[in-house]
Queue: 2 jobs
Job 1
Amino acid sequence: MTALLETPPEAPAARARSLPLWANPRLGLLVLLVVLVVLFTALRPSFLDVDFTLVPMQADISVYVVVGLAQLAVLSLGHMNMAVGRMAAMSAFAMGLAYQELGTPLVVDVLIGLAVGAGLGALAGLVISRTGVNSFVVTLALDFALVGLVSLLYAKATDGVSFGAQPGGMAALRTDTFADYCAGNVCGPPVPLIVPIAVVAALLVGLLFRWSRTGREILMTGASVKAAELSGIPVGRRVVQAHALSGLLSGLAGFLLAVNNGAFSAGIGDAFLLPSFLAPVLGGTLLVGGAVSVLGTFLGATITQVIYKGLNLLQFQVDQLKLYIGLVLIVALSLDRVRHVLAERRGARA
Amino acid sequence: KKSDDASSGSKTLTPAQVKLALVPGGAHPYFQPWKAAGDKAKTDFGLGDVTFNETSGWDQTKQNDVLTSLAAQGYNAFGIFGVAPENINNTFDNLKQKGFVVGSLASCPAGDTDKADFCLSTDVQQAAYKAAKAAIEAMGGQGNLVHLTGNKVDSNTQRRIAGVQKAVDEAGGKVKVIDTITDIDTDLQTAQKAVADLLAAKGTQINGIVNTAYNPAVASAAGVKQAGLPIKVIAIDDDPTIIAGVKDGSVAATVLQNPVGQAYVGGYALMKLAGGCTMKTPGVVVDSGSFVVTKANVDSYDTDRQAKTDSLKSDFDAQYLTCK
Amino acid sequence: MILSASGLVKTFPGVRALDGASLSLAAGSVHALLGENGAGKSTLVKILTGVYRPDGGTIELDGKPVHFTGPLDALRAGIGVVHQERNLVTEFSVAENIVLHHLPRRFGVVRRSRVRDEARRCLDLLDLDLDPDAPVSTLSVAQAQLVEIAKALSVDNRVLLLDEPTASLTGDEADRLYAIVRKLTGSGHAVVLVSHKLEEVFAVADTVTVLRDGRSVAEGQPLSAYTRDEVVDLMVGRAHAAVSLAARTPLSSDAAALSLTDVATSYGHADVSFDVAPGEIYGLYGLVGAGRTELAKALLGLGSVTAGTVSVHGTPVRISGVGEALRRHRIGYVTENRKEEGLFLEQPITRNIGVTVWHRLTRLGLIRDRAEASLVDDYRQRLGIRLATPKQLAGQLSGGNQQKVSLAKWLAADCGILIVDEPTVGIDVRTKAAFHELIAGLAGQGMAILLISSDLPEIVTLADRIGVMAGFRLRGELPNDGDYERMSQSIIRLIHTPLIPAAPH
Amino acid sequence: MTAVAFSPRVFRTSEFTLGVVAFAGFVGLTIATSGNMLSAGTLAAFFRFLAVPMVIGLAQMVVLAIGQMNLSVGVLTGFCAMASAWLMIEAGLPAWLAVLAALALGALVGLVNGLLVVFTRINAFIVTLATMTIIEGLRYGVHGPDTFQDYSPGLVRLGRASILGLPVVFVVAVVVAIGVGLFFARTVAGRHLLASGGSPFAARLSGVSNDRSILLAHALSGLLAGVAAVLTVALSGSVNASIGDDLLLPSFAAPIIGGVALAGGVVSVTGTCLAAFLVRLVDVARAQFGIGQQWVDLIVGAVVLGVVLIGAVRGKLASRPSRPATSAGSSRRTS
Ligand SMILES: Nc1ncnc2c1ncn2[C@@H]1O[C@H](COP(=O)(O)OP(=O)(O)OP(=O)(O)O)[C@@H](O)[C@H]1O
Ligand SMILES: Nc1ncnc2c1ncn2[C@@H]1O[C@H](COP(=O)(O)OP(=O)(O)OP(=O)(O)O)[C@@H](O)[C@H]1O
Ligand SMILES: [Mg+2]
Ligand SMILES: [Mg+2]
């Protein structure tokens, strides 16, 4: 069969030029990040204060990166998870309950909680894939149902709204940085202990979507359900898996927040919804599915936290703070667009 | 490891070195008097600086962020209304570990421990109890009561519910709580809708409404007035709209707290602590007082409150603080 | 000249689609625009209708230069167009789609009765019996295409550009379209016809422009000056050897690779029985709407087989989905609807081809990009896929090259049984011949091929046996003797014989 | 060949399903409350507080129609409400002027949203997320956390008045809904907007300006938020910076339960209004039976899922191929 078709004349090499490096959207975000850091440091040198700025900021970024990844897991399908916050709350509840009832060590509690999160996600995925109902609706309804359930459960299992006792190790995760652990004179960097958890999660998610078959098939399902089905991809199973992953990551985010706040409580996840979209979408993940950017999500979460921290240091009052957050976002995004458009134009002319 | 050593040695500060931050849980009318009270504390006690920051947005994560930002800016004394009473001890703990003085203002941590130096707050259970008492009295000692309040997953709400229950129990069966509606303090319209639906459903059976949150208070005062029902409304705080209601009779009574005292005396105590004093009982809970205001005392209540504030200040000197 | 363009240049990221193309159009004539897949025909059409703005070159209308800033400008200038892809608002009714660009209005309010009347008039032009109020989403591919044409006819355009208008139409429907085209040119309109069906082109067109690699190689010549082979030579750019397939002898085998006995499906098929042997090409012919695509989908488990048996290599099977068909039974399906079902338009070519075989390309659970890239390279050479880079998005390829990618994915999957649905719709002559060779070659290697096609010459060229389908039933089966005339007559006869109710079993 | 089902088409729509559910719910609640539901007070309260959810659902619907979202509808409503109260109390404007100003402000902010989307080409979700925080700041800036009250007795009286037993605010909302319905069904601009939402490329090829559709949709969404603000100011008698916080999720819930596709191109005014009606029913049931909020959330979640599932099942049944096996070929025109 090899000789049946001659190769057509090769496309001239000049035709096949990809966009220049500076057109990479992630690079744009990175530049934006650097500019913001420089700007805020110039205005408020305490922006580089290790104890009060850098360490807490890393802890917050860790939470919101994982929150963003939880949403990203379903954005890959072109779906949404409106219940990220409540899945986190349920997952944290399970962790607290496991410790309270079974007294199991931290790792076991966390695993139990993550399993609950993944289970809830899988449930949403199952309903979506079986009925074909829009994910927005299903997860929104699930969110409503879980809001009620979370407070009912806390009322039952605790005398209030949070678990009193925490498994050992939570406190260390919250307060310690690697700098507190020294071997002789050599101490670690001032990085909170929870940062590696988020980093590993991000790497695994990146690995999944970039190189694993399951992850790629999820993306293909997001790109076109029909084509995916006709290419032999088990579409239903991939939908369930993506949602389960979203639930799992929500649970992890809930755990990280519980670590930062110091307790498993009913309020965990209340403020997750908007940041969960903000980080991936800022990072260039589209809402239509088929493409995700883990690095972008990381940068998106970091940029939002940097803006927030910087404006906080500038001590704006509520109204100004809100105003400037919005303005900075719009300006930053617009600049990014300008860069993108310029790059496209250059690329087209080349 | 840092988590092992409990506290670090703190150095003493002159009043002029004290930079006081008053941090509510979010924007709310209740906290507005803190601004003026903080300024007054600054001039009266010669503090280095006082700031008021309400950008927390009712989110504990954000509040923690606000607090560390303020610390980075050089603030070293904190009067905090914790967003999440169940978690706030960790926040206090963090700040204490850095050597700051911390007062829990207007709300105490949930549970029995208080990691702040002190808690200066309305005893919410007591305030709700007083409000329910006032309602029962206005109702003539019998009838049906409804309790409107805020976020159910907040330990303060639980205490308020308990306070109302206590007053009802004391009425010996003649008063019944026929409904406790939670989660309607998020915004005014939710409260208005809930009140309208409540009045439509059971308006004729209700004799009194106890409010232990701001938006429901505004909504029920207006709702009852408009429906023309003979329901006794007990409101909370002294927002102009509510005081106007007390004056025109649409609000039977309102239960006031003492935000000025909390900020002013709290600031005083924090200054003292920063200057080397210690708490006799670290984490002591001090009631900043609650006052029932009816038409009778609507013009004079502020003197009572002023007196309470003054006595609070001397109480701190006399009872709570040990100074070298 | 009504419309003329010269020196048009258009560059897409990484691809120069037009490189100085020219075209001039005289009133009262049908002008054929020919070229291989990816030569730039559609791009030219889109520039002339204001969809793309050219990077260089000029367009003149009645001798005056014009600059279209958008499709509306071209519409206003009296240029109507049927694009290669369907461009209907699927949520809207047929009527509204037809008149969308000039909705009858009074004070900003749509006059619905006028909309319906106007649409009815256009449908009547095409002799189309469609409910103007039916939503477009309920139409078949062919019906949608006809609506698209009706839309172009709804205003009295001086210039009409038709980009592959008949790709999804039956002969009858195409004839009706060409009758209208002739009527239009008779009254002084100018028509541009882009088509890979050279028979039609020679029957209809007066003059011709041939595009090759974005340049015009024969511009505005009378078509009668060329023979069919000369045109093809121009398109291909070198002397073109007429392809004639070597005679193939199907491998004789006892067990059919795929056999259907009295199959009925949830789509409404009944009593369908045939079998395909390894090395055999079984042609399934029928008019559009005959139910062949649905039969294929039912076999793959996308619909369900409600009665009868389907056997693969002699074993009765129940297939629940494409994945199972592929991995358990090695059955592949090349869809007729490549845009929606065959390709992931927004994904790189590598992933489009690798998707069926990722499980074979993994190491430690991770896919090796290197293996995927070499797979693509392999098929790029074997099928002659014209691409800028393997990372290019599939949607950026020209139609024919998209079709090749859609096929490559199934070739990569190494199937024993391949169902090929309308493989050469919208494919240029050379590629079509290559496809035919390819399919014959696959059969030669022992693959059992079920070829679904509405292209009679194609079926007669390729198939060993021909099943004729109409109304969701198999009307009969003919051995192919390779004589086009005779075969076509007997097939048409089969389609039009009334159905004798099957004897109850 | 167009043998698509015709007669029972209306029974298969999601509006019909919703209508049946809403009616059944209403009747059920009437029976369960032994008629209290039909008492004048309850009915009035029911419809009075249905007005804003309806209008805010429509405000979201018009942007969903072009396949975008507007996260700022809720806070914009609050901002316009605060602004008009400020104009009446602090600036001393007459009520009618303040009302017009609120509407204009809403439309203007919406237009700005649209302009940002068109000129930056940033996803509307993100643009409106950013403007949402900006407007939140502005809303707070008007009067801090304090409450405006006693602005215009006339306006408030109007907000509490009834025509033929129906609250004026509800009647206004219905008129607005009809207007929006007619806009999408009958006007050229509305049809173009829908075409842009359904298939932007096809619309562009037909000479429709997608940019104009985007601007129009966002401006209209803002205007409707302005209407919601005016209704709020009129019916509640007091407003503060918390107004609008509870509107974002309902703004999505109503159109989506009502059958509006997130992808754009489809709107359903009836469905949106019916969905708002359903959610309101749950509110009232809660008040009538003193159900805890947690249970309400659970019930709303269940109802939403239930309605949607029923819709999906109906859809599946309706689209099941029902082609007659024997005479399909001959009856269809295949020439
Ligand atoms: N939007 C686009 N982005 C990038 N490249 C494109 C785009 N549209 C077309 N191309 C490229 O431009 C070249 C010309 O494409 P065009 O569609 O004009 O070919 P064609 O002659 O119409 O082919 P066919 O006969 O297959 O329809 C092709 O190489 C194609 O890949
Ligand atoms: N009368 C009809 N009503 C509704 N849908 C129809 C009707 N006729 C055809 N269709 C649908 O239109 C789609 C396209 O059908 P198409 O015209 O391509 O024929 P087909 O059934 O695929 O047969 P073939 O492959 O033989 O052409 C199919 O999914 C079919 O279900
Ligand atoms: Mg083309
Ligand atoms: Mg077909």
Job 2
Amino acid sequence: MKYAIIRFPGSNCDWDLFYVLRDVLKVTPEFIDYREQQLPADTGAVLVPGGFSYGDYLRSGAIARFSPIMEDVKHFADTGKPVIGICNGFQVLTEAGLLPGALRHNMSLDFICKPQPLSVVNNQTLFTDQFEKDQTVMFPIAHGEGNYYCDDETLTELKQNNQIVFIYQDNPNGSTADIAGIVNKQGNVLGMMPHPERASESILGGADGKLLFESLVASVEMAVG
Amino acid sequence: MMTELSPVDIKAQKLYQQWGLSDDEFSQVEKLLGRLPNFTETGLFAAIWSEHCAYKNSKPLLKQFPTTGKRILQGPGEGAGIIDIDDGQGVVFKAESHNHPTAVEPYQGAATGVGGIVRDIFSMGARPVAMLDSLHFGELDDTQTKYLVDQTIAGIGDYGNCMGIPTVGGETTFDDIFKHNTVMNAMCVGLLDNADQQKGAAAGDDNPIYYVGAKTGRDGIQGAIFASAEFSDEQESQRSAVQVGDPFAEKQLMEACLELIHEHTDILVGIQDMGAAGLVSSSAEMGAKAGYGMELNLDLVPQREAGMIPYELMLSESQERMLLCIKKGHEQEVEDLFAKYESEAVQIGHVTDSTQYKLYQHDQLVADVPVHALVDEAPVYHKPSRRPARLDQAAGQFEPTINDLNETLIQMLSQPTIASKHSIYERYDSMVQTNTVVAPGGDAAVIRLRGTDKALAMTTDANPRYLYLEPHDGGQIAMSEAARNIVASGAIPLGITDCLNFGSPEDPEVYYELEQATKGMAEACEIFETPVISGNVSLYNEFNKQPIYPTPMVGMVGLIKSSDLITTIDFKHEGDLIYVLGQTNGDFNGTEIQKMQQQEVSGRLFDFDITYEKQQQDLVTNLINSHLLQSAHDLAEGGLAVGLAESSFNGNVGIDVAVDMPQNYLFAETQSRFIVSVAPENQAAAEKVIGENGALIGKVGGSQLLIRTNDQDINLDLAKTKQTWREALACQLN
Amino acid sequence: MYHVKVYITYKPSILDPQGEAVKTALHRLDYQNVETVTVGKYFEIDIKDDGRSIEDEVEKMCDELLANVNMETYRYEIESVTQTAED
Amino acid sequence: MYHVKVYITYKPSILDPQGEAVKTALHRLDYQNVETVTVGKYFEIDIKDDGRSIEDEVEKMCDELLANVNMETYRYEIESVTQTAED
Ligand SMILES: Nc1ncnc2c1ncn2[C@@H]1O[C@H](COP(=O)(O)OP(=O)(O)O)[C@@H](O)[C@H]1O
Ligand SMILES: [Mg+2]
């Protein structure tokens, strides 16, 4: 079973994900070029990494979403298999319509990079079932456009369907309803601004993020049976 | 559009003077060529012979620096230097100044400074793994400076963040003297498998020369010349050499170049970035270095604008461009590789088995000069130097006035140079690449070397105030501070890069400062066994004839042999014992408290003994290697009280300390000191190593900052005081 | 040949932090009489006439790429220019 | 009350990386007929009439803050509006 890491021009957290999957989780990651038409047949999960696809020109994620591989990522998501977008990956997934809402400039207009305490609001997803409900976790953030926006109607829906997965305890960027990460209605597509892959080894200051990857890997392995 | 004067008119009208060539230099060009240079040729010489490219005023001084050592794989002379870090790996680093562009357009100036230094690193075959900076601004009391600071930080951050290179450290100070001359130095550190080492040389008759990366426009023409001139009020309108950075293009370019280097080793002959003086300097240097000539067809140079003349094409400093020399027959391979990264690779010429550097445009030979004349015959000047009168002052030291000791500490912690810099470094991605073990906020930054148990420590340092009062000792102290940071983090210093930011070398007093500072630094390099492997010189940092303080930034890298030696500044556990290592004297000239209380630094700098410094650093290394320390922090600006507060703030734990000294001494900046903490069970072992070179002053614990002196005591609530220190800079920036 | 200008701004209901920042800066520079500032993006696009409806094309470009209609609105102006020598 | 629109773009000789990126993206989306794209900034500013020359004020704002005249050029349009209820 492969963990497909999509690589756009300008992706730069691709290797960080690769190392966590290979060295910490001991699974098999594979880079998939944005120009590919199809994911490998044995793809168990798709990961859209952070970075600055196309330099974040125009809007972050706006150009990357037209990459050829995104068609197959959509099909993959439609089959109910896990897709996770982290940081720029989250921005790409919202631009691509796989997740509702959009990400605006941070309220301060500045890029912000620091460890950020989050609450796990929904520990019933395939990405979070190893966390406790309402557990406090420390994930670094590193973004200039991480200010989540959605209209009231969408927000009501997100709440009703329990789609809000992570919220900031101390909202750093102005996000609507302190949202740090959401899933789609089906629960198999996760987008989040904070970086769990930067918090998966204690030498880097914390390993809370490892639980997220462990949840994901367990669910992928289970699907294989 | 520029009009090209005839050779005779260039001489008659002395056009070359506008481009920075003196009458003598022009005659020398005439002699080297055996004829008058034409317009293009004059431009080529003016650019390559500028201070920025040729170091004509600083070369004799740079000769003082030790540049060799048993770990040194590459000293100065290439894109960057390389130091062996065992296991077949090397660390590559260099620093670069972008002061003039940053003063004119802070966002783009700072951004393109980062872009330039990153290219130097990957041109060596190394992957950039960390960035640092060194920033010196004017006081934060006017809107213009606030804007400058904001935009400089944004420019550095946006470029490095987009490239995916963590910015892990740096320094920032504020003094009025930098108001019109921001100092913006950027340092990049890369990692290399030693087998992949590259050189910027173009050898082999008929081998193709490839231009890769962004198109050439008219931006930054004469940038090198511009960097070699002072600013003044009248000149405001001439400041037009702005270049816009495109970090996305550079990221693609970097990945393409690294793939070429790592996976097509056999076809690459040489690679160099197009930095100062763009195409001419990179191509001529590559040819000269290999002992070959070169022919370029300028019609083939990718161009963003129409109608560019050879002078403009050759001197443009458009960003994100590199020059390659590859083996003939592999053209398609190179073009395909760059196409994969949506980056352009175009053959623009070839190496020749001659000694001439020839340029063609529209089938005309537009320049034809001996390549060595251009690159190696630049004049070198020994400028007159004169000791400034301010250095000969009575030895007396400033006496701080302290009414309320608590109040004085709070005021000190609120000085922008002392206050937490988190509002700056949190705008940089310091964690991408997931190797950052010690993030900004402590002494040196530490990144692990993935796949090994080793780590690298790195720092940038300079205290221009000390150098202003005493350039020689100040130069030694800049080196010592850097080494102290490296040692405190558990590393052994390996070597340094530097940026020499000074005023105009035509001013004998400035030249004296340059001479003395570099002398002091060179001596310190010997003592710390840290050769200089790369560096950069930025002169003419003046406004209306007022030079900046001498500011030689030292960028030092150290090796941590195993991860259990990594040491941080934060106090860790209640009950740990706190020691101050080193003597404290009444040393107040040039200090933060002098600056705070009398608005300027003055007097004669306190004494400094570099032998004692080295001994104290070795002591800390011993303690760390024996696993006896919980924390280590070097003392610098602000002295003991500030150092203790910082270790407390970072550990979120209070202290209870008593020192046998007058209260003033809490703010003395006597060098060669550290604060370390020791677990109680290691007390005896630690004290045996420390001996007479340090003293137990108290314990970690509680929620107060409690420091007793022979006069008043400091007794402050930790959380509240930390808040003041954390918010001070952010408040003043708003 | 068409010369098209596209203006993109946040929807009115969405707070525009950039506009606020510029307003504050202008006030600080003593332009106290500035009441509101909106910051947006501005594109100038030259498009060759290929027989298709230019309005349709520009709207499609905006919907697909230039604007994120979840949070932004756009307007545009189209000028028809006769191809002449460039300056 | 004045309603001012300010348009800022890079000077022609200055690299416009965003414009290039957007152009490439449009081509990839099959808008092959797009010839050039310039990306700039756009401001809408409401300014209370305080008797001073509005043109002078807008130009000063642009020179001081909104544009960096080393690399950008600006143009503006001023509309005089009678204060009415806002929309
Ligand atoms: N202050 C200095 N100390 C040591 N080496 C220096 C110094 N200044 C310049 N050099 C070295 O001289 C060479 C030329 O420097 P520079 O012109 O800045 O390089 P580049 O062409 O990459 O811009 C480099 O190898 C650089 O490391
Ligand atoms: Mg170089």
